[in-house]
Here is the input.
Amino acid sequence: MCQQLTPEALRAMSGVSRIPRPVDESAFLSAVKRHTPAVLRGRRRAGFVLLDVVVDANGEVRDVTAVSSPSGPAPEAVRVRGDGSGGEAGERLMAGSSDPVLGPAAEAALREVKFTPAVRDGVAVPFTLRMSIRFGA
Here is the structure.
């Protein structure tokens, strides 16, 4: 379950008043489903991958990096962080596991998705966020 942050907590934690989100949630879910690795399709298995995603001021995904260890369990913390211009990192906990095929699948899915840009002082700004994508069951 996603925990909602107050605008004040978000600004204090990341330096922005709005973090990037998919413009169309159903398009995001469709992209994830379309890129679900074959090893997870039709099975009762699931996995998630933790990613650093760079979203530019136009809402375009510019870079995606899997931060989960492909040889072991994924880290347990999901962290939202600013772009280095005044925000401090904060953390929310999430449990799960990762598989090395999930990083490339998540990157392919995210490159198809348009995001709202982050906003600081009323201006759209580039932002790096850490997010997870869950594939499968």
Summary: The beta strands are 21-22, 46-55, 61-66, 77-80, 90-93, 115-116, 118-120, 123-125, 127-136. The radius of gyration is 15 Å. The helical segments are 7-14, 25-34, 102-110. The mean pLDDT is 76.
